Amino acid sequence: MSAFDQGVPRIGASLNPHVSEPKNLETKSVPAAHDVREALDDFLGAFEDFKQANDERLGQIERKLTADVVTEDKVERINRALDRQKKTVDDLALAFARPELGGEARVALDPAKREHKRAFDTYVRKGETHELRVLEAKALAAQSDPDGGYLVPAETERMIDRIVSQASPIRAIAGVRQIGAASYKKPFTTSGFASGWVGESESRLETTGGKLSEIEFPAMELYAMPAATSTLLDDAAVNIDQWLAEEVQTAFAEQEGTAFVTGDGIRRPRGFLSYPRVADASAVHGKIGYVATGVAGAFPTSNPSDILIDLIYTLKAGYRANARFVMNRATQSAIRKFKDVDGNYLWQPGIAAGTPPTLLNYPVTESEDMPSITTDAVAMAFGDFKRGYLIVDRLGVRVLRDPYSSKPYVLFYTTKRVGGGVQNFEALKFLKFGTA
After folding, report:
1. What is the C-alpha to C-alpha distance for residues 396 and 394, in angstroms, rounded to an integer?
2. 187-237 confidence digits (pLDDT tens)
3. Top-confidence residue, 61 or 129
4. Cβ(347)–Cβ(338) below 8 Å
5. How large is the average pLDDT for residues 114-120?
6. Phi, psi angle pair for 339, to nearest 5°
7. Angle formed by the axes of helices 111-126 and 240-262, to 10°?
8. What is the Cα–Cα distance from 115 to 138, expressed in whole angstroms?
9. Alpha-carbon Rg of the chain, whole angstroms?
């Protein structure tokens, strides 16, 4: 099923004539540094409240083998508030760090890029293609025509990629490679070259050669179709590059984030959860190993954190240095209550805005596309994602202007090509909430 068959939501001004005008991004407020610090202080204060409430709950369990309903409810309310406050901190930090596409950055462009930027602006605002077509013909830009669309300026493309990488959790932690072809092929050895020890004067036996195979990562087409009115396009105060980047980033980030986790590889990237899974002792290339909790749909009742340590040490030492946990918000809320034998909480908040929380001193990436804790669900992943999962981006984001299909709106059919898949099966491990 293609993206069109799935009905990917259009963003910006929709086809509904009652939808309001897209916002002018030049007047969009940017949070100040003190706003980010205040939000972080509120989050850290809420975590201290959570620890006190949870300690009270654990004390009641030790004394009476059960906790009061009021205390349980208090812990859960603070836990939910922590999730909301963390999202606020992350959103403010992201907005504060967002780059501007005007002023000094624009002046710094070389003449060729400045000329392309001006021609693209004219195309988006007025639909004039002659100058842009000539420039892209000079640059030998393949598939740049009225049917295939025109390449966005390099600065706009970088902003789209930067915002998507910040908004898409898996893109932010995976390996990323830019390609100029339709796919990327990576060779790997299925069996190593033979070797051995010999004495100085002993004869050397002929060694057997290694066997090579390859993994292919095709780049699939991802699209978004923001819309604008002529009034918006005629407004010289509106930064068109920034408007377009802001409009498409949400659609791109949401679609990518889901595909990198659960995508089936058919007209979209293949997500790491779509590969075959086996008990870690039987893990081989092409299959990702998992550790089972031993309890259907739950952590073990006694010493639940031990299974997390088991998961960490299924990973080889070379991958553990840059490893991290990936889970959704609900799973993270459950783990937030765990303590070690000394009474220290295993989950700790990030010490600065924009830094991830940690679990057993490993960073935690929150992805809502990960499944929640249910029977036999793989609700947690752990590993070195930069070495384990590869995202391939074909260079170039294209825009096709369509002023006819939905008058009086002007549609901007924006496409990029992206692929993804597991490149190193040893670098990733799963935690399965089941008996085996």
Report:
1. 6
2. 876 665 667 788 877 877 766 666 677 889 999 999 988 888 878 887 767
3. 61
4. yes
5. 71
6. -130, 155
7. 90
8. 12
9. 26
The pair of three-digit structure tokens given for residue 257, joined into one six-digit string: 């984030």
Partners of 189 in beta bridges:
212
- Between CA 325 and CA 366 the distance in angstroms is 8
Q: Could you give the angle at the alpha carbon of 422 between the alpha carbons of 418 and 426, nearest 5°?
A: 160
**Residue 406 CB neighbours (<10 A):** 17
User: Residue 121 corresponds to which amino acid?
Assistant: D
> pLDDT, tens digit, for every residue of 392-417?
998 888 888 888 888 888 888 888 89
Q: What is the DSSP string of 42-97?
A: HHHHHHHHHHHHHHHHHHHHHHHSS--HHHHHHHHHHHHHHHHHHHHHHHHHHHHH
Beta partners for residue 394, in sequence order: 179, 417
In 3D space, the residue among 39, 98, 393 whose CA is nearest the CA of residue 222 turns out to be 393
Residues forming a β-bridge with 411: 227, 402
β-pair partners for 382: 325, 429
Tokens of 21: 């005008």
Pull the structure tokens for residue 251: 């659609």
82: pLDDT strictly greater than 90: no
Domain segments of the chain as ranges: 1-30+98-187+212-328+367-436
Cα 359 from chain centroid? 19
Which string of b and e fits 60-80 if b means at least 16 CB within 10 Å? Answer: eeeeeeebeeebeebbeebbe
- Answering whether pTM is above 0.85, one says no
Mean pLDDT over 235-240 rounds to 74
pLDDT mean over 359-382: 95
Nearest to 256 by CA among 278, 277, 271: 271
Which two tokens mark 259? 């595909």
Q: Which residues touch 70 (CB under 8 Å, ≥6 apart)?
A: none
Phi/psi of residue 360, nearest 5 degrees: 55, 40
SS3 helix, strand, coil % of the chain, rounded to 5? 40, 25, 35
CB 364 within 8 A of CB 356: yes
Task: Write the single-letter amino acid at 360.
Answer: L
Residue 278: name the closest of 378, 192, 367, 189 by CA.
378
What amino acid is encoded at 105 in this protein? A
Q: Dihedral through CA 113, CA 115, CA 119, CA 124, nearest 10?
A: 40
Q: Give the separation between CA 400 and CA 414, rounded to whole angstroms.
A: 6
The predicted pLDDT at position 240 comes to 77
Amino acid, single-letter form, for residue 100? E
Q: What percentage of residues in the chain have a pLDDT greater than 70? A: 76
